Amino acid sequence: MSEQSVSSHDVATLGGGCFWCLEAVYDEIEGVISVESGYAGGHKPNPAYEEVCTGRTGHAEVVQITFDPQVITFRDLLDIFFSIHDPTTPNRQGADVGPQYRSIILYHNEEQRRIAEEMIASLNAAKIWKNPIVTEVKPFTEFWTAEEYHQEYFVKNPYQGYCMAVVAPKVMKARKQFASRIKANR
Question: Which of 18, 20, 99, 165 sees the fewest Cβ atoms within 10 Å?
Fold first, then answer.
């Protein structure tokens, strides 16, 4: 098999509040190969969840998404991203407060940076939200995988209180808004 016939995959790293929410939504999107919850954007190597929760590591809760750009583009992933969280609240998503819950796009190349900045400018110009978007757009440096119990949290704990009150409504919104992009075998 030639190298050109092997499907290439891209990676996106996004933070928009609790990583359980983003992971649960992106897990269902066609073209997404894998989603891993973790930490990025900070300064402490290999942080533990308890450390990230203090807000002193500089890390945000993020998801690292491996996707097939022939099926879904980075721009498509950002369309979903901006629809499932409030990008106008600095260091918070709903009741989750702290820099670890900030809205952040950690770009892996210049094209991702350009797309993210263009999209933010376009959304701000459209005045979709009352306040301007505060999503950080920064270069990706390092991703630290979150503890195993955070992986596939919503799938494993659908009746846990936070999942029922916060995660499930975001998943339902994404299923409705992006119905044509939901994997057939979910």
Answer: 165
Closest CA to 60 of 80, 37, 78: 37
CB-neighbour burial class of residue 105 (10 A; exposed 0-12, middle 13-18, buried 19+): buried
Strand, coil or helix: 2 = coil
CATH number, span 8-177? 3.30.1060.10
DSSP SS3 for 59: coil
Q: Where are the domains of the chain?
A: 8-177
Q: Spell out the alpha helix ranges (H) of the chain.
A: 19-26, 49-53, 74-83, 110-126, 153-156, 161-162, 168-177
Q: Tens digit of pLDDT for each residue in 131-146?
A: 999 999 999 999 999 9
pTM of the predicted model, to two decimals? Answer: 0.93
Q: What are the b/e assignments for 139-152, b being 16+ CB within 10 Å?
A: ebeebbebeeebbb
Q: What is the length of the chain?
A: 186
Q: Which is the catalytic residue, given 18, 21, 53, 163?
A: 18
Per-residue 3-state assignment (H helix, E strand, C coil) for 120-170: HHHHHHHCCCCCCCCCEEEECCCEEECCHHHCCHHHHCCCCHHHHHHHHHH
